[in-house]
Design a protein that fits this description.
- The protein is an alpha+beta fold.
- It folds into two domains: 41-158, Fusion Protein Consisting Of Minor Coat Protein, Glycine Rich Linker, Tola, And A His Tag, Chain: A, Domain 2 (2-Layer Sandwich), CATH 3.30.1150; 183-304, Fusion Protein Consisting Of Minor Coat Protein, Glycine Rich Linker, Tola, And A His Tag, Chain: A, Domain 2.
- The chain is built from eight helices and eleven strands.
């Protein structure tokens, strides 16, 4: 009897093994790729991102924030070009752009969240896009002492410059600006051009042509040649809407003989009826304050004469 039980158990055991070996092996499942981990983007952190230009100054964090805001406002003002369509329709308003300052200080995910229309939102986004090409990058936001990704919201105001409603004396000057304000070069959207320079975005032609005009018309003062004196004269003048120069002045921080000659150079330009192309702001010509240096260099003068 015992023999029968052992034989039966052995039979079922061998049958089970044979059944398992007769089955084909299951194919291995491909490895599951890990899901990419999305990096966290903060909206508010202990230290918000800062526009570049203030980090190397010995300032408190609060002063650096104020400095960065001022520089950002100046950057926007210098680079904003009022869309022609918005000018024609006299559209004003606030465009709002959101973008992310990554912890590596790069700018990503630029999007328009408020758009007054007529190209204003797109122009505000273009300004943010242009920040990627700046020589210095934004300072990243920090949380607990470590750089993190932060979403930044930037409002860009579009406001048309309109003549003052204040009563003023009637004159023949710029009707665009009733107070006849003079626009500095840093606030222009298109720089003025030296006579005969073609319309172009850069100012290479103006700089080179002006430099050549100064060289040709400069008369080194005789007394300065005798005593081997050199100087640099800082000259400023206003480019009027008709291209003529007015209010030609020079800083009197050098000898009068140099100042007088430098001023005469630009007076001669008017006498020769050489007309500049005035600068533009918001696609309109404006009276522009222009500054340049006139160098009286003995070595250069002797080489040219």
């Amino acid at each position: 009897m015992k023999y029968f039980i052992i034989t039966t158990v052995l039979f079922f055991t061998l049958s089970s093994v044979a059944a398992q070996t007769s089955k084909s092996p299951k194919p291995l499942s491909p490895p599951v790729s890990p899901q990419p981990v999305e990096e966290e983007v903060f909206k508010v952190v202990e230290e918000m991102p800062r526009f570049p230009g203030c980090e190397n100054k010995k300032l408190s964090d609060r002063k650096k924030e104020e400095c960065a805001k001022e520089k950002m406002i100046k950057y926007i003002d210098e680079n904003l070009i009022y869309p022609k369509e918005a000018l024609d329709q006299e559209i004003e308003g606030m465009a709002v752009i959101q973008f992310t300052i990554w912890k590596d200080r790069s700018i990503k995910n630029i999007k328009i969240v408020r758009n007054p229309g007529a190209g204003t939102g797109e122009e505000a986004a273009r300004i943010v896009e242009s920040m990627k090409e700046m020589d210095e990058k934004w300072r990243a936001g920090h949380q607990r002492g470590k750089p993190v990704n932060v979403q930044y919201t930037l409002p860009v105001k579009f406001r048309l410059e309109k003549p003052s409603k204040k009563r003023t004396k009637t004159n023949s000057r710029d009707p665009f600006d009733a107070d006849n304000n003079i626009v500095d070069m840093s606030s222009l959207h298109e720089e003025p051009l030296f006579p005969d320079c073609p319309q172009q975005k850069n100012s290479d032609c103006t700089i080179e042509s002006l430099r050549e005009f100064i060289r040709k018309n400069q008369l080194y003062p005789e007394k300065a040649l005798e005593i081997q004196k050199q100087a640099i004269v800082n000259v400023s003048f206003i480019i009027e809407l008709d291209g003529t120069l007015s209010d030609i002045q020079a800083r009197k921080n050098v000898e009068k003989m140099f100042v007088d000659d430098a001023i005469e150079i630009f007076k001669w330009m008017n006498q020769e009826e050489m007309k500049w192309t005035p600068g533009k702001k918001n696609n309109r010509a404006v009276r522009t304050l222009y500054r340049c240096d006139v160098a009286y260099d003995l070595e250069e003068w002797e080489a040219r004469n």
